[in-house]
Amino acid sequence: MEFVQTIQETKNIIKEWEKSGFTIGLVPTMGFLHEGHESLIKKAASENDKVVVSIFVNPIQFGPTEDLDTYPRNLDRDKKVCENAGTNLIFNPAPEEMYFDNAVTSVTVGELTNGLCGSKRPIHFQGVCTVVSKLFNIVTPDKAYFGEKDAQQLAVIKRMVRDLNFDIDIIGCPIVREEDGLAKSSRNTYLSDSERKAALVLNESLKLAKKALENGEVHASKLTHVISEKINSEPLAKIDYIEIVDSIDLKPVCKISSSILVAIAVYIGKTRLIDNFTWNTNDNK
Amino acid sequence: MEFVQTIQETKNIIKEWEKSGFTIGLVPTMGFLHEGHESLIKKAASENDKVVVSIFVNPIQFGPTEDLDTYPRNLDRDKKVCENAGTNLIFNPAPEEMYFDNAVTSVTVGELTNGLCGSKRPIHFQGVCTVVSKLFNIVTPDKAYFGEKDAQQLAVIKRMVRDLNFDIDIIGCPIVREEDGLAKSSRNTYLSDSERKAALVLNESLKLAKKALENGEVHASKLTHVISEKINSEPLAKIDYIEIVDSIDLKPVCKISSSILVAIAVYIGKTRLIDNFTWNTNDNK
């Protein structure tokens, strides 16, 4: 496994691989890898000749009051996870390698970034789309892998790839959960013991909503109510948003008649966690 | 020479070329080709195995009051110009081929697009950067060719390519002029006979500024005065802007001490024309 910190060296290795006709899978990450990332890397390894994992805590996708400085890091462990999961190259640039002081170019995906996390984190998706565009141009992968936990990110990246004609297949991979149901996240490490228990309320509230759908509920407002009631029953939890949206264009839906995304963001103490599921009206048939 | 109207067919041909190891030069145009474009195509043909010319009047770079509907077109003549200059593939998509109805992704280059044409045409450069990004992803050229007449566009594209890590060399090519000095432009066709004569004032005013620089002038305000006095002497001409800026970051300069761009936009009747020259302080040594 190669460990590379410069753009040029990465490009050089990629060019050699392309000359040999190898297909390339990219897994963009911010490091502090968990089993969710691992599942992306393994899937990439099963579908491509070569796998690149980028590990880069991207400063421009964090707002001024967010957790850029405290975002958890453990490069030594990340290297082991990558190696074991079948990575061929880790790309781990410093921020100054990725951004010139006078960098002024950004990629934005309108509309899809207005709601959900986009409305709470106004610069977030511009930062994500810009860095992902850069990674795509540096690594030129055939396929790129993103977790379905960041459902809005996945929808936004898919739209960006379509709109800008990137010749890359975007592969979404299922949420990986702890045994008790909490979605894996690098930010789970922020939680105290009592918060860790309280965090179960995210998945549990979604399970209630799913049950309601299975029982034939078609009103988004009822689903929202089911979820909010459950979350509000947990004293350490504070709702950031509960949204029922079309799974493709992320526009809010009132009556469930197509494929929907049920997405929530909840503060557990000071830690903001997200979770979601998608539901197709055919799922009940 | 291939003439292709779909993205997929273009990609297929490009992939075959890449398999054969051919280098590819791209000349993005809006058609109605003149000797300026021809010089770009010939340069591309001399430096690459294959040359792609895109002919696409890009709707998203025109403001609502601009000349999208009347922009001159002559595809038959364009094909001949392309063939004679050494083009291998013309990519001529319809607007619906390039933009889905629900396209929402855009590429912006901040700061560099605040002044000059950017301040007069607020959505222009976002439209340019977005379509050029798309063309880069579709054609994946090794080199792309742009005229120095659109000096701000050239600086903006160079910055975009650097910031987003496109692996493409951007080649600027000198302004091609009519015998009497008017910069070649597809929009020159809008001019009446008297306007055509009046339009000479653009180049003539720039020549006066250049002479002042050669004579040691270092104050931007003096250059602006020389240019505006000349343009104002022509009754059919109306100044849109006169700007003296750093040639790389396009920030206004007061005292000339580096490489500068002297750029003007002038209405001749209803037709807006641009012209410019770059000047390096070393040019006098």
Automatic annotation (TrEMBL), chains A, B:
CDD domains: PanC. Its EC number is 6.3.2.1. It is found in: Cytoplasm. Catalyzes the condensation of pantoate with beta-alanine in an ATP-dependent reaction via a pantoyl-adenylate intermediate. One of its GO terms (biological process) is pantothenate biosynthetic process. This is Pantothenate synthetase. One of its GO terms (molecular function) is pantoate-beta-alanine ligase activity. Keywords: ATP-binding, Cytoplasm, Ligase, Nucleotide-binding, Pantothenate biosynthesis. Pathway: Cofactor biosynthesis; (R)-pantothenate biosynthesis; (R)-pantothenate from (R)-pantoate and beta-alanine: step 1/1. It comes from Clostridium pasteurianum DSM 525 = ATCC 6013. PANTHER family: CYTIDYLATE KINASE/PANTOATE-BETA-ALANINE LIGASE, PANTOATE--BETA-ALANINE LIGASE. The gene is panC. GO terms for cellular component: cytosol. The reaction proceeds by a bi uni uni bi ping pong mechanism. The active site is at H37 (proton donor). Its main location: cytoplasm. (R)-pantoate binds at Q61, Q153. InterPro entries: Cyt_trans-like, Pantoate_ligase, Pantoate_ligase_C, Rossmann-like_a/b/a_fold.
